[in-house]
Amino acid sequence: MNVDGQKYRTIWLAEDGWAVEIIDQTRFPHSFETTRLENLQDAAHAIRSMQVRGAPLIGATAAYGICLALRADASDVSLMEACSTLLETRPTAVNLRWALDLMRKALLPLHPEERAAAAYTLANQICDEDIATNMAIGLHGAEIIANIARTKKAGERVNILTHCNAGWLATVDMGTATAPIYMSHDGGVPLHVWVDETRPRNQGAFLTAWELGKHGVPHTVIVDNAGGHLMQQGEVDLVIVGTDRTTATGDVCNKIGTYLKALAAKDCGVPFYVALPSPTIDFTLSDGLQQIPIEERSGDEVRAMTGRTAAGSVETIEIVASGSDVANPAFDVTPARLITGLITERGVLEANGKAIATAFPDRISA
């Protein structure tokens, strides 16, 4: 994607060919900064602190973290310890485990002297394949938007609601839930995006709004609880969200608040779609509510909020009454019965085990 006329991915190799550079997403929306990762600890910190976030980008960063670890020490012990360290950074996004499993299985049989170079090749491949996957998701999702646009009067816009950030900042490029939006916008379809702020980390207000603005997509930021009202008023034509983990039966785990949007969409007859690359499907799970681990993050994310003052300085302030306990579950699970369809690189699927297994037989046997 373009930022002020310059092409960017969210993660890339530095000019020296071995260090890794990322866009530091903790700095949004008040500044655009990049950060250099030089070792395993840097990569683990980037994932844990959410300098990088979004399931596909977490997986790509983990792959490069293995590269950095093997560059320092290519032994079996180093490889296994690196995988263990990175796996512990974020428990919910399955792409993390998928990428680490892929790297370990490919690298462990190799002679230690061959591992670092092979690791960089595979990590680059993971990034390129993520972009190709997102492009395919975009094409399939754009057909849904085009079909809705055909029911509109001339010049009338398609209104899309999204939650959290499943944009290019959550992937290597293009995004998942936003890929159909970008393709439709670039193809001349009049559309508008309702952007949930997505408390407590404000990924919608900070990230989705930022990238939609940079791309010139009309959008409006709303508070998280406004979506149901807009659906009741006929102001939402469809909902598209991303996912951090999807079960083999179609249950979807996404940023906290997604489940409530799905309930409102069901009640109002609004189509609710989930855009996902196949590595986000966890074929070992069948019951999202019982089996997907939900990350509990620090209560400080709820107690405080960072913003720009009228004087122009960026400051963090407390917003919760002193002495109050705070809970901060980062994700919730939307049951398959509430989902209209899964937008994947292999087409739009029904949210059930049979459809998923038919579309991805190679993933089941992998």
UniProtKB/TrEMBL annotation:
<dbReference type="InterPro" id="IPR011559">
    <property type="entry name" value="Initiation_fac_2B_a/b/d"/>
</dbReference>
<dbReference type="InterPro" id="IPR000649">
    <property type="entry name" value="IF-2B-related"/>
</dbReference>
<feature type="binding site">
    <location>
        <position position="90"/>
    </location>
    <ligand>
        <name>substrate</name>
    </ligand>
</feature>
<dbReference type="InterPro" id="IPR042529">
    <property type="entry name" value="IF_2B-like_C"/>
</dbReference>
<dbReference type="Pfam" id="PF01008">
    <property type="entry name" value="IF-2B"/>
</dbReference>
<keyword id="KW-0413">Isomerase</keyword>
<keyword id="KW-0486">Methionine biosynthesis</keyword>
<feature type="binding site">
    <location>
        <position position="203"/>
    </location>
    <ligand>
        <name>substrate</name>
    </ligand>
</feature>
<feature type="active site" description="Proton donor">
    <location>
        <position position="244"/>
    </location>
</feature>
<dbReference type="GO" id="GO:0046523">
    <property type="term" value="F:S-methyl-5-thioribose-1-phosphate isomerase activity"/>
</dbReference>
<dbReference type="InterPro" id="IPR027363">
    <property type="entry name" value="M1Pi_N"/>
</dbReference>
<feature type="site" description="Transition state stabilizer">
    <location>
        <position position="164"/>
    </location>
</feature>
<feature type="binding site">
    <location>
        <begin position="254"/>
        <end position="255"/>
    </location>
    <ligand>
        <name>substrate</name>
    </ligand>
</feature>
<comment type="pathway">
    <text>Amino-acid biosynthesis; L-methionine biosynthesis via salvage pathway; L-methionine from S-methyl-5-thio-alpha-D-ribose 1-phosphate: step 1/6.</text>
</comment>
<dbReference type="InterPro" id="IPR037171">
    <property type="entry name" value="NagB/RpiA_transferase-like"/>
</dbReference>
<comment type="similarity">
    <text>Belongs to the EIF-2B alpha/beta/delta subunits family. MtnA subfamily.</text>
</comment>
<feature type="binding site">
    <location>
        <begin position="53"/>
        <end position="55"/>
    </location>
    <ligand>
        <name>substrate</name>
    </ligand>
</feature>
<protein>
    <recommendedName>
        <fullName>Methylthioribose-1-phosphate isomerase</fullName>
        <ecNumber>5.3.1.23</ecNumber>
    </recommendedName>
</protein>
<keyword id="KW-0028">Amino-acid biosynthesis</keyword>
<comment type="function">
    <text>Catalyzes the interconversion of methylthioribose-1-phosphate (MTR-1-P) into methylthioribulose-1-phosphate (MTRu-1-P).</text>
</comment>
<dbReference type="InterPro" id="IPR005251">
    <property type="entry name" value="IF-M1Pi"/>
</dbReference>
